[in-house]
Design a protein that fits this description.
The protein is 25% helix and 22% strand. It has ten helices and ten strands. The strands form two sheets. Strands 4-5-6-7-8-3-10-9 form an eight-stranded mixed β-sheet. Strands 1-2 form a two-stranded antiparallel ribbon. A hairpin with a 5-residue loop joins strand 5 and strand 6. The termini are far apart. About 3% of the residues have low confidence.
Amino acid sequence: MGGPGDPPAGTPEGAPGGGEDEYGSVVFDESFVRAARLQEFSAQERMGDHTRAVRRRPGLHRSLSRQLVVLAVLMAVAFGTAIYMGVRNPYHSPTAKRPEPLRMTVIPLAPTGRVPGSTSVPDLYARSPAAQLRVGAAGINLPGARRTSHFSDSQVMAALVTAKDYLVASSLAPDILTGGSARSVRILVDPRQLAQFDRSFAHPTADGRHAATGWLVRFDPAKTALADKRVRTEGTMRVEEAGKNALEVTSDHTFVYAVRPAGKTAGGDRVEASLFTVRRELRFRFDRDDLRMHRAELVTSATQAGPLACGGETANHLRPLLAGQKAKAAGPAGTDPYATGDATALCGSLAASAQPSLSPS
């Protein structure tokens, strides 16, 4: 039985002293009380006109606002620091080295006698070393593309293909050869060399830097025309690394053109065609951007061309000596543009072995 004053059935569950108090372990210390968002009015305050027993404490809002301000400041500082480190990061990838200006030489090869000619272009080729050469781009063969220490097979092939495309555009395209727009060549040049390229065509000069004929092959359309658009070609290409960030391609090709006087038709009455031979040695450099964008930096360009007159203007156009013409003075030594070797310094003589024979063989 319960004690005196206890209900007959005992203390109800949940009543003070009955069962387990679920809040018995909770300690409402001073910090808990101070953190409460609601605060009871004191007895003296309740004696006034207040109709509510509690009030809301504003302290939490002010504290929260201060925390938000501090957080915003910290985020702004972190963002500014990230931008600063991005601009001043000492571990940036190295910037591409600015290309040097293209160094070029154009060397005339003067004939030792009269320039051989024929009214039959096939006959001219048959009587010259060009008889065994292939026609056009078929004569520009690509070597096998093998990966290097820092470049893949596909990157090596990209360099070779771009170099070939440059040779085709600058040495074989009829519109280029006859003095037309150089745009098809220009788009293959590294943009950082375009100022030099444009100056070479706007103000060509034989200073080793700004000759139009250092960039491409073209004839003076007022004096020379093509007797046959099928240019004979042969040569070699090789590729190698120029450090871990660049590839270099070196090309060495001979191009043979059938030319005639402008305004006349080869095969007409007493109009003869003749052969004009150009040997071009080019060195291309490709950084990774060039490989991706299908363009090239030209490092050096060495051209031997004849028959030309020594001392003639060659910076803007090539003006071949045509069939039956002869040079006033030959160079110091015979140079064969079909043979490998160093270029003659200023002007050379075109070896007889490099020209068509005077009579059918």
